[in-house]
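Lecture notes, continued. The same structure-token format from the folding unit now serves as the input rather than the output. Read the line below as a description of shape only.
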């Protein structure tokens, strides 16, 4: 973030997670756009990317551990617990989704 969507005049009208034109978050155009939005719109724009960012952080930690850049046990215990819980939850959800896909062929 942020990819920008422009109106016909070239002004930014929306920030997105994907798109054709990417700008730095601190670019003057993005800053002006965010300053013009009501607070609830800014919060909504940030919230829209929270889930994606959590997944990015999960994947980044996994990559750093796999490449031995980061030692998992050196993370604070609370962080380890949360990461392991998310990993298990994702594993469980994927297993359930696979069961549902497999069951679709039975009917």
């Amino acid at each position: 973030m942020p990819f920008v969507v422009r109106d016909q005049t070239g002004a930014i009208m929306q920030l997105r997670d994907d798109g054709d034109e990417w700008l730095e978050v601190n670019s003057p155009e993005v800053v002006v756009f965010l300053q013009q939005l009501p607070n609830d719109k800014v919060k909504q724009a940030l919230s829209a990317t929270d889930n994606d960012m959590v997944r990015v952080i999960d994947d980044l930690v996994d990559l750093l551990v796999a490449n031995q850049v980061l030692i998992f046990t050196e993370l604070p215990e609370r962080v380890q617990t949360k990461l392991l819980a998310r990993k298990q939850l994702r594993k469980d959800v994927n297993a359930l989704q696979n069961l549902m896909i497999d069951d679709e062929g039975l009917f």
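Point for the exam: Strands lie at 3-6, 12-16, 21-22.
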